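Worked example 4.2. Below are the chains of a multi-component assembly; read each line carefully before continuing.
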Amino acid sequence: MRSQALELRRAPRARAPGLLLLWATGAATGIILLVLAVLLLDIIAGGAGVISWEFIFANPRRGMTEGGIFPAIFGTVALTLLMTVAAVPAGVATAVFLTEYAPADSKLARAIRVCIANLAGVPSIVFGLFGLGFFVSTVGRGIDRALYGGEIVYGTPSLVWASLTLAILTLPVVVVATEEALRAVPREIRDASMALGATKLQTVIKVVLPEAMGGVLTGTILAISRGAGEVAPIMFTGVAYFLPYLPRHFNDQFMSLSYHVYVLATQSPNVDKTKPVLYGTVLTLLTLTFLLNLLAVVLRARTRAKVRASE
Amino acid sequence: MTATAPTITPQSPDPHASLRRKPRLGERLTELALRTVALTSIAAIVLILAFIAREALPVFAGGTVGESGTSFDLLASERLADGTEQFLWRPVSQPPTYNIVPLVVGSLKVTLVALFIAAPLGIAAAIYVSELAGKKQRELIKPTIELLAGVPSVVIGFFALIVLTTWVQQVFGTEHRLNALTAGIGLALAVCPVIFTISEDALQAVPHTYRTAALALGSDRVQMIVRVVVPAALPGILASLVLGFGRAIGETMIVLLASGNAAIVSGSVGVSTRTITATIAQELGEVVVGSDHYHVLFALGTVLFASTFVLNFAGERVIHGLRKKLGTA
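Applying the procedure described above to all two chains together yields the following structure tokens:
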């Protein structure tokens, strides 16, 4: 396909209209890249001078105009870790079911795929509403009534509910990446495993899944990157404006990098004094998500190269 | 559901399945477990709809009167002393009015500004990357634009609030410092990669034979792109706009930070604007659970969920149909 595409580029060249098309579309591409560059450079210029060991590892001070952002970093890590624990097994299981078990014409599989595609398009604020209405008010209150005699322990916004809300939001990311990797595993490998007497389950666990591990990892990384940047779903399900302590239990509230950006940008009593900390927080968040995305891109490219090589 | 049996179905990829014994108990339990977990996504969609709609039910049950004599009519207008009609979103005044017209207008206004900017840029960039750029360029530009999709929306919102606002006001001399135009430009940054990626996929899905056939008939490269490749990919490109629209109307943090959040009905993009999403984000934290206002916010969520669901469903259908038609499913 690649080489064919290259041959086409030697096709007869048009003169004026061709150049016009080339310039117009090239300019559009350039504008997008330019805006991205401005965004990145502005954030790096504003934030690079702020980042230090102290900034990363200290608590906020003086109404968050000084000090560091450690509680927010800790909160984001705890949040995405719990989210991963919930989303990755569920996502991988879904992908395995869809590719390995469900027959090609299965109505159930099609319904699941439609739901995953739509789940990916649900606005993040709707996840916030859902998390509050379902996890906090219904599941949490239910646990309180059943186990704590109605005393409010879990029926309040907290780390576990925010993580589960994000897990549902990022489920499609994991499923799509895993499915892609599973489908790239050649059928012959499965046949060979079965021919050697392995059961279907053994084949899936010992042969197919290890082959698709790159995809699972890509999905996990993308999910973490996505989850770490979200604000709307955690706003009402557990994130806090400011906390003097770190979360230690599932039902504690927490701070997060993403929400911290929002708080610093909107609720600061002194905008100019907050600005350095704000830029530093944005740079930290962006570095985190970009590094994760970059890792995912590299992993995916390697997986695809492997697929192409085996074809 | 005979399709659930793991062994002998006519479509089974394994022609010798019948030769093997019935799967062991563990195997069958695992499959059952996988199937159950796989139902999570269906359950999630159903639960989201059920729980949001449940909290919104008092509002949709009709123009009933809430606890404090409020009308739940989301479209009720108010006649002012001078005889003009006004649509007001005033959830905390006495008595409160919950007219969603200003919010719907706000959401549409910001979304249209975003699409107006992002659509030409995204589609043109897709054509460039898919059809005109060299291999090296392509492999560099595509992931870079997709990197933009990875920027968290709160970061884009921050950029719009801190940097874009000043520029936009200087260039366009807008009425309010925070307005629909600034929010729309910010939103365009988030929507552009969506339109680009889907359009580029659609262009790449056009079979090689279409291109060679066009060239064989004597067209040059531009004619091939403009008259054959782009028209063939058109449903996918249109779907990218629909999906981009869905993404834009559901986006929260960018508009919350950059639009100014005043519920004004106005055709101008230079004035402060409040969207459906920003309203939920700003007000849900302060409402009493179970109050009228609480139910109205969930009603807004239901409207949002329903509209994005329809948009996404339509977009996905079109893309699926296109891939089938082009034989690249």
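Take a moment to check your reading of the output against the notes. Chain A is about 75% helix and 0% strand. The first helix of chain A runs from residue 2 to 8.
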